[in-house]
C-alpha cells in the first residue's frame, strides 16, 4: 500500500510502498478516505516532540471504511464508514490517562496512508451529515477542544444563563472547534487572533466580537468592547470561561479579563513559559486554571454526539491528495491555514 513516511528529521515526507496490513485480535483495518494534519505532525518532523522513533507514517486524524477485522471483532464492522479516535489507551480514569497512553501517528504508524490498523474500540460511526474529508478533520482537535471547554472549564451545554467565553488564537483547529462548540451551546463568545481574516471568519461562525492580540493593550480593547465601555464591569473582569493555546507572558492578561470565579483552560504553550501572573489576582477572583490534553473515550463519544446533534461542520482550509502531503505541512508550518488541512486517499 502507499503511505507518506518520515524517515529522517527535518526532511520532506516521501510517498512510499509499505507492506499491507493484517489486523491482530481486537483490531480492524480502516481503508482511509481522508486524513487531516495537526501541529503535532509538524512538530514531529521538526524533532520537537518526545519519543520520536523513525521511520514512521504520521497522521492522527482519519476517516474511512472498515476493510478487515481481527479475531474477536464482529464481522458486521466490515464496510462501515467510521471516524478514528487517535487517543490510544486512555484507560478507566476520566481524570487522567494511563502510562500506556499514546497518540496515533507517533510512535504507532498513523493515517497518512491507504490503510491503518487500529483497535476496534477506537473506531466510531462517522457522523452521517459529514463527508469523509469533514469527518477526518474532527478527531484530535475536536476531542482536545471538547475536554478543555466542556470537561475542564465546565461550560454548560444546557445552561439557561449563558457563559461568556474567550477563545484565543482562533485560527487554529482546536480553537475553531472550541468556538463552534461554545456557540452551539449558547455561549457568548469573543476571540483573539493576529489575522483580520481569521477574526472575520470567527464572526461568521457566531463569535460576538474579537480583537487582534498584536495590539499592545489588546486585553483593554477587548474588555472595552465586550462590556460596551462599562468601566466597573471591565475592571472586575468579564469572561467566565477562557480557552487558550499560547500560554507565555500574555497569560497574565487572561487572569485580568477573567470574571470572578472564572475558569481558564489551556492545552498548549506556543509562546513559552507563563510569567508575570499575580497570585493575588488569582486568589481574590477565585479563578480556576486547568491544563488539558486530548481526552477519554467517553469524551470522544460525547463530542461526536454533540457534532451530530448540532450538525456542526468543521472549518477546512484546503484539501490535497495524499501525494501532496508535504505541501500541507509547509502551509501549516508557515501559519497560513485557516481551519484544517486535509489529505484525500484515492
UniProtKB/TrEMBL annotation:
Enoyl reductase (ER) domain: residues covered: 8-343
InterPro entries: ADH-like_C, ADH-like_N, ER, GroES-like_sf, NAD(P)-bd_dom_sf, Zinc_ADH-like
A UniProt-annotated Pfam family: ADH_zinc_N
Molecular-function GO term, any one: oxidoreductase activity
SMART domains linked to this entry: PKS_ER
Superkingdom in the source lineage: Bacteria
Name of the featured protein: Zinc-binding dehydrogenase
Organism of origin: Fibrella rubiginis
Organism lineage: Bacteria, Pseudomonadati, Bacteroidota, Cytophagia, Cytophagales
Amino acid at each position: 500500500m502507499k503511505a507518506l513516511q518520515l524517515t529522517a528529521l527535518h526532511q520532506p515526507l516521501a510517498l512510499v510502498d509499505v507492506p499491507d496490513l493484517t489486523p491482530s485480535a481486537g483490531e480492524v483495518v480502516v481503508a482511509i478516505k481522508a486524513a487531516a494534519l495537526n501541529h503535532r505532525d509538524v512538530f514531529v518532523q521538526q524533532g520537537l516532540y518526545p519519543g520520536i522513533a523513525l521511520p514512521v507514517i504520521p497522521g492522527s486524524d482519519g476517516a474511512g471504511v472498515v476493510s478487515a477485522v481481527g479475531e474477536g471483532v464482529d464481522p458486521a464492522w466490515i464496510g462501515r464508514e467510521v471516524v478514528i479516535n487517535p487517543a490510544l489507551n486512555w484507560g478507566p480514569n476520566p481524570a487522567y490517562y494511563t502510562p500506556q497512553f499514546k497518540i496515533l501517528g507517533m510512535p504507532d504508524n498513523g493515517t497518512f496512508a491507504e490503510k491503518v490498523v487500529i483497535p476496534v474500540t477506537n473506531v466510531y460511526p462517522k457522523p452521517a451529515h459529514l463527508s469523509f474529508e469533514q469527518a477526518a478533520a474532527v478527531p484530535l482537535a475536536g476531542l482536545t477542544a471538547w475536554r478543555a471547554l466542556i470537561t475542564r472549564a465546565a461550560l454548560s451545554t444546557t445552561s439557561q444563563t449563558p457563559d461568556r467565553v474567550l477563545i484565543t488564537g482562533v485560527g487554529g483547529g482546536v480553537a475553531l472547534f472550541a468556538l463552534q462548540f461554545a456557540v452551539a451551546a449558547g455561549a457568548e463568545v469573543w476571540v483573539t487572533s493576529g489575522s483580520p481574516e481569521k477574526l472575520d471568519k470567527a464572526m461568521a461562525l457566531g463569535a460576538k466580537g474579537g480583537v487582534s492580540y498584536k495590539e499592545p493593550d489588546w486585553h483593554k480593547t477587548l474588555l472595552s468592547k465586550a462590556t460596551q465601555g462599562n468601566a466597573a464591569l471591565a475592571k472586575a473582569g468579564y469572561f467566565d470561561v477562557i480557552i487558550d493555546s499560547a500560554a507565555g507572558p500574555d497569560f497574565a492578561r487572561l487572569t485580568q479579563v477573567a470574571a470572578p470565579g472564572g475558569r481558564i483552560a489551556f492545552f498548549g504553550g506556543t509562546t513559552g513559559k507563563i510569567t508575570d501572573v499575580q497570585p493575588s489576582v488569582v486568589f481574590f477572583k477565585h479563578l480556576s486554571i486547568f491544563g488539558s490534553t486530548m481526552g477519554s473515550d467517553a469524551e470522544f463519544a460525547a463530542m461526536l454526539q454533540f457534532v451530530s446533534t448540532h450538525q456542526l461542520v468543521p472549518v477546512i482550509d484546503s484539501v490535497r491528495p495524499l501525494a501532496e502531503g508535504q505541501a500541507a505541512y509547509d502551509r501549516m508550518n508557515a501559519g497560513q491555514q485557516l481551519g484544517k488541512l486535509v489529505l484525500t486517499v484515492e
